Amino acid sequence: MTSLTPQNAQLDHVDDHDEDHGSEHPDHRMFGLATFLVADAMTFAGFFAAYLTFKAVNPLMPGAIYELELPLPTLNTILLLVSSATFHRAGVNLRKQQNERCRLWLMLTAMLGLAFLASQMVEYFTLPFGLADNLYASTFYALTGFHGLHVTLGTLMILIVWWQCRTPSGRISANNHFPLEAAELYWHFVDGIWVILFVILYLI
Amino acid sequence: MTITAPQKTAPALPPLQPTGWLRYLSFSVDHKVIGLQYLICGFAFYLIGGAMAGAIRTELLSPVSDFMARDVYNQILTLHGTVMIFLWIVPVVNGAFGNYLIPFYVGARDMAYPRLNAVAFWLIPPAGLMLISSYFITGAAQSGWTAYPPLSITTPATGQIIWILSVLLLGGSSIFGGINFIATILKLRRPGLKLMQLPMYCWAMLGTSILVVLSTPVLAGTLIMLSFDIVAHTGFFNPGMGGNVVVYQHLFWFYSHPAVYIMVLPAFGLVSEILPVHCRKPLFGYTTMVYSIMAIVVLGLVVWAHHMFTSGTPPWMRLFFTIATAFIAVPTGIKFFNWLATLWGGRISLNSAVLFSCGFIVNFVLGGITGVALAQVPFDVHVHDTYFVVAHFHYIVYGGSVFVIFASIYHWYPKIIGRMLDEHLGRLHFLLTFIGFNLCFAPQHWLGLNGMPRRVAEYDPQFELVNQISSAGALLMAISTLPFLWNVIASAFYGAIAGDNPWRALTPEWLTSSPPPVENWKGDPPLVTHPYGYGTPGDEIDLNSASGSDLWRSGQ
Ligand code: HEM
Ligand SMILES: [Cu+2]
Q1: Number of domains chain B contains
Q2: Which CATH code fits A37-52+69-203?
Q3: What is the rounded distance in angstroms from the CA atom of residue B208 to the CA atom of residue B225?
Q4: Closest Cα partner for B369 from B273, B445, B311?
Q5: pTM for the complete prediction?
Q6: Of A14, A132, B254, B410, which residue is 20 to 30 A from B311 by alpha carbon distance?
Q7: pLDDT at position B235, please?
Q8: Do B235 and A61 touch (CB under 8 A)?
């Protein structure tokens, strides 16, 4: 098979060239992430479409209709919205090379994320219906659960970023703020999805 | 034709990776290696899926189920469809040729995200093996490639769950690939190269990748819901629990109609590369071609319910989706006439690549016509779920996409391997495939029109003879693979040396050695602004400005 590759001399140095990509080309990673988030949004769109169709054409049996309590989800909305702002502050501070402050804001963001998850858990355990009770219940858990998975992932990312920007010369720093920006974009996205979810699931 | 003179900067020497054939088993990030990995892996699955088709056609030789049990038939049928779509056509027309060609076409040294690219490929073999091994371990899924509930909820659960997991992995692979293609085409273009100067395959891949990114995630979400129905006993799609099966169909076809374009748009692009080279004429109607691709992308997203005319769709929905589907025939027709006009008056060299491309044009127009017929509700309610539909989509996926895959292999093999394929074997391959294919699938129109349902192991005895004719065609198709296999293996060792540019083509992948060096060109990437500038004296390659490098050796 080696006869297929007359450039063997060249192949000794096969390109693992994304190490030095950053310096050679402009950075396209944010573009890729944004495209991925479009795809992710389409997954949610599929769930929303299913939910709305079910709601329109599959009436629940009498007695299976619940009024959802609003205080907890409203608190959740506020938690996430505030966390988007704190994340933004973290990014601003990183670019100013104020790593300590950046980490403080990051920690606050992660805490808000965890608080969201905790309060979501509280809601789950106080709801009067379970996953397989009826169509409405299943769709409710599918949507909020899928979103909760995103929040969990985002919180993990924040903690990793928090760990990696300990020192101004660490892996994540003013010179390499892509990981922080990526996590931030993702977090804002998850946040935005929650707002839509809140409106569709709880308000209408 | 302009090719700017390359600057003589040596590329930095990258770190070590396996060499020789071992590369193809490694986590290589070289787009050409990944392209070939896709191609070879896809072809292996094609052979497996083909064997399954052979088993199906053997069973259908007689009206009773004697060759295999009925539930085995269902499993084989499900695996056949899934393997052919998700492990052969989609990975090969997108992943294989896309990875190999797109970086050349945009003048880049690799894809935008080489590592993501390797991850996308390496999701495929485990997913495929998992899918096929489910047959031996627990019994495979039995509900067809569409996995319609409630059938998919009531058939044995383990096989169905494995099927779902494997399709989720393949969908993920496809999404990663799509993101990579979009970024490469939009962001990695060599400076000075405008969008409207790109070879047509780039446009096809851009459109396809947009469809992949918008529609595949919906399939993923749907299958997750389906798996909940199976494992956690939720009732999304279970009418017994107040669920709604039609919602599944809507979500599924929201992906799977675009999926048929994910299988055929790249093939359109490949044909548009092959024809001009061998006809020595510019691609006819470049601009209309670009706009019709984009029109197909947009329309392709709003026609899905034409698969559901018998699912209790309300009249307004039938009307809307019939009209939208009919509209798709317009951009498709534009492309068809553009290919004909490209051939018209050209100096055609009727080699295997062109024969397969012309075979594609013929088959595709037949499949397209039956498609438009199927989109008419009064007709469709009679032939839905009959062999007429089977004939329709095989004319498109096999007669269209698979023919183009073969054409592309004949066209690009000299570039990939550096040696020519044998023309005689190639023509024999074409003849056997074309006859076998039409013998196999043309009679199925008749079967469907006369009421033979699809997806069943047993049928009314009156259909026996026609089914046997169809099976004979399938045998011919199986035989046709032999000269092909012999050709690609033997030619790799004994074929005539191809040289850099045996077809005297103008697109950038030919303006380098065969096979190309690791970073595609030893010098700077050439700027090809007229990839189809054929037909003018001497083919208008400015050899002076292109010389001084390994770009081009004159006197081929
Ligand atoms: C000219 C454009 C096309 C039109 C108008 C069209 C129309 C249709 C319609 C109406 C059906 C549903 C038939 C039924 O189930 O009763 C159908 C089925 C199908 N078409 Fe097409 N089609 C077109 C092109 C394509 C292309 C390009 C592909 C693939 C590359 C394709 C693949 C399929 C497949 C796989 C099915 C069967 C799906 C299943 O039920 O398993 N079609 N087509
Ligand atoms: Cu369709």
Answers
A1: 1
A2: 1.20.120.80
A3: 26
A4: B445
A5: 0.90
A6: A132
A7: 87
A8: no
